[in-house]
Amino acid sequence: MIDLSGVGDTGSVPAEIARSLGVEEAGSQPVLSRIIEHLYEKRLLLLLDNLEQISAASKEIAMILESCPHVKVLGTSRAPLCVRSEHVFSVTPLDVPNLRDDLSTGKLLASSAVRLFIERAKSVKGDFIINDQNLMAVVQICSRLDGLPLAIELAAAWSKLLSPRQILERLGDALTLLISGPRDLPERQRTLRAAIEWSYDLLGDGERRLFARLAIFAGSFALEAAERVCGAQLETLESLIEKSLVRATSEGRFFMLETIHEFAAELLEKSGEAEELARAHAEWTLDLAESAGMYYNEAEGSQEYELVVSEQANLRAASDWALRFGLQDRAYADRRSENR
Fold it and tell me: What is the pLDDT of residue 340?
């Protein structure tokens, strides 16, 4: 195993691999050549941890794979390397019970997210007991945190002081509460904010700008909406998906996990673009409502009905904004009144 989290320079990757493998210097021979020579006849699995900040080293890694027939590489990264021999395995969040379903106690306890919370809670509070009184609070915590293992572990750590219900009540600002990770973890994994910042810091300027702007959407959104409201480019959106900051649904829509959305919303507020984007978002939803004829065709199953249902969260968010600020703009207020 080779930990690359402390390597910020792509050119230093071969040297770090050579050092970890015990490959000695050999005059003027390039480091990569020495690594290939060392590995050529070996049957070996190289676990390269934290590849995301040095993805430009993908060429060197590809050369090792092409030159050493019995060497395999397992890389952990928040973005794919995009080389021909790569097979991507996405690590999804833990399964969380659907709060809309009527589930038995057994099914709730079968959730991997709930089991993780209970395990970590017992590790900090030996007499922690899950029962009918606190189980639903644990389920709601796991749901609020999108099944993210790190977030659940950080929340469960508060069990030594707080009950599950008290933890849930304080999760309104998850990025502030979840700050108590074990001291033997890397710094970026000791708080949820640090973990998200680690990914954000690896973005280019255009990716950062779009990431913050996408926080204007509530729930999920379509590509066309992102293009109109945020000026999104498909390539940039794809890059955010590859870096696990935005997720795609099977229906062709996009969304952020709640804790990541919270972080992006903070960035949007600091950017000075929040008001402009809120107005653009409201204008888009108004046009959407008008084109769908949402006040005149509510037949379940119709195209207009399905469109309104899929954008329900955005329509509600835009309406809330209009009630708070939109009345300052008479033209907007008049259009909204006519549409009602």
Answer: 47
